[in-house]
Write a structure and sequence with these properties.
373 residues, alpha/beta, Rossmann fold, 2 domains, 7-stranded parallel sheet, 5-stranded parallel sheet, 38% helix, 13% strand, elongated, oxidoreductase activity, NAD binding, signal, D-isomer_DH_NAD-bd, NAD
């Protein structure tokens, strides 16, 4: 073989290798995802994916509730990954789970039992059913969730409930259905400007609630588990052991705390007694944070002026429960996170997290399994 032929052959081989390297290079972040990360303040984990024991740049990903368009977007984000839509057939699903190293869906013990599972992306924010699975952390499973993607609609729902109670809209709605022009049945509406809003749980959802409350001219105070730090529009951030003292300042309380052993039943008779008489209680987090009999008693006595409940304990709320018949209570069936934009934000997050995982970068919204959020 002549020197010219050898040189040409080497050049072809080098070009091929360079082309393969270029193809293997992970794609850049979607600009829309980058903008969402900034807007919602999404946080990345402290450890790069490539440094996690058991990581692979070519994961086998099982995806629930994904159409062809979403599957294609996931494939573009991680060209080397094997991405499969979850089957509706239990037998076929079991075969898929046997080889999956990553699963995207809602917390389900069957999904979390996948023998080769390394990463579970939960669509919902609440992951109590995930962290309740015994041995999850010991198996080295990495857990991420949809934190903050549903924050805007949930916060708007909380504010809508608060304003509806203050303006008497539940009562006026009943008068409308009865065809009754009643100007006396509710009493005096309340202005919210200058009132104090207590946000319990200043995380992603709580921060969105606080920002909107501040925009209405309210004085916003809050609690958070990790520190006393908060945005400028929150006048004071207390720790969990200061909850009752902060409740004494509150005209409105919004529960945005995750459910953990420490937050189960924290809204009880002592808490409601500590609030300003006639205050409003809004729950858009978890029903088990509330001692429901104590809530009913506080509403009946007038200590609470009203309640807005998107969550209850149990769910669904049983027929005939006293809360159904109370004129100063708004109940919605755990739909606060629903909106025409929430799905788009969630799938931006899921797709960006897969891109990061395949690229070996830190994941967004990593859950501390020991803490439960």
């Amino acid at each position: 073989m002549s020197a010219h032929v050898q040189f040409a052959a080497c050049l072809v081989l080098l070009t091929s290798l360079l082309g393969s390297a270029t193809q293997a290079k992970p794609p850049p972040p979607d600009p829309a995802a980058a903008a969402m990360i900034r807007e919602l303040g999404l946080r990345e984990g402290a450890v790069a994916s490539r440094d996690l024991p058991g990581w692979s740049a070519t994961p086998r990903v099982l995806v629930l509730r994904a159409d062809a368009e979403r599957l294609a977007a996931l494939q573009r984000a991680a060209p080397g990954a094997a991405i499969v839509a979850a089957s509706d057939d239990p037998t076929a699903l079991a075969k898929q789970l046997a080889t999956a190293t990553a699963v995207f869906g809602a917390c389900d013990p069957t999904l979390l039992a996948a023998p080769r599972l390394h990463w579970f992306q939960s669509y919902p924010v609440g992951v109590e059913r995930c962290v309740a699975v015994e041995g999850l952390a010991a198996r080295g499973v990495v857990l991420t969730n949809g934190q903050r993607t549903s924050g805007p609609p949930i916060a708007e729902h909380a504010i809508a409930m608060m304003m509806s109670l203050a303006r008497g809209l539940p009562q006026y709605g009943r008068y409308q259905q009865a065809g009754e022009w009643n100007r006396e049945g509710f009493g005096r509406a309340r202005e919210l400007k200058g009132r104090t809003l207590l946000v319990v749980g200043l995380g992603g959802i709580g921060t969105e609630v606080a920002w909107r409350g501040h925009g209405l001219g309210m004085r916003v105070i809050a609690t958070r588990n990790s520190s006393r730090e908060g945005p400028d529009y929150v006048a004071r951030v207390g720790l969990p052991d200061e909850l009752l003292a902060l409740a004494a300042e509150a005209d409105v309380v919004v529960n945005a705390a995750p459910i953990t052993p420490a937050t189960t039943g924290i809204f009880d008779a002592r808490f409601f007694a500590a609030m300003k008489p006639g205050g409003y209680f809004i729950n858009i987090a978890r029903g088990r944070s509330v001692v429901q009999d104590d809530l009913v008693a506080a509403l009946r006595s007038g200590q609470l002026g009203g309640a807005g409940l998107d969550v209850t304990d149990p769910e669904p709320l049983p027929p005939g429960h006293p809360l159904w018949a109370m004129e100063n209570v708004i109940i919605t069936p755990h739909i606060a996170g629903d909106s025409d934009r929430e799905d788009a934000r969630l799938w931006l997050l899921v797709t960006e997290n897969l891109r990061r995982y395949a690229a070996g970068e830190p994941l967004l919204n990593r859950v501390d399994i020991a803490r439960g959020y």
